[in-house]
Sequence to fold (202 residues):
Amino acid sequence: MITNRKILCYGDSNTYGYDPRSYFGGRYPDTVRWTALLKRMGWVVFNRGENGRSIPQHMWEYDTVVHALSQSQPDILTIMLGSNDLLQDPDISAEECAKRMSSFLSALLKQSPVCQILLIAPPPMISGTWVNDNRLLRTSQQLAIHYKMVAEKCEIHFADAGAWNIDLTFDGVHFSDAGHRTFAKETGMVLEQIMCKQKKII
Fold:
């Protein structure tokens, strides 16, 4: 188990730990949230998840991330965004969403953050109270393919949460208790692999 390693998790409600059973933005307890579960694996976790967050498109948003990196100085920055972009704009394609991500990452990399970056493609949505459009379902399924190409272009790490069989709740978007546990386990393994590779390079 890795100890005393720092990670900054930048994302939306699934990073924040939103509990869809709450009507007022409530979140799952520490015993459930994947970011909190990573702490039990020895990581120092800075949770920068926010309900409703989409991919940053403005300089002030970029600056906010850079400031968070400067404050926490993590070994790894994880980024998992895109679901809200799809939900808020039903006409956007997976390729267009990936272009937003590419622009964000390019702006971030120009700031030369001294850490590894892991781009995580969110698990595809399923039919639920928030998702009843087949086009939206298809687009969310295509996101990982385009994100992988973005990660390769930016020379950063990539993981496809769609391959992890993450259990989602009744709304078709948010992680269930079991989903958080699985996500923590799978993310933890990817993080260890990244750190092991980094040690070999050093």
User: Anything to note?
Assistant: Residues 134 and 191 are 33 Å apart (CA to CA). The helical segments are 13-16, 34-40, 59-72, 83-88, 94-110, 134-154, 177-201. The two ends are 19 Å apart (CA to CA).
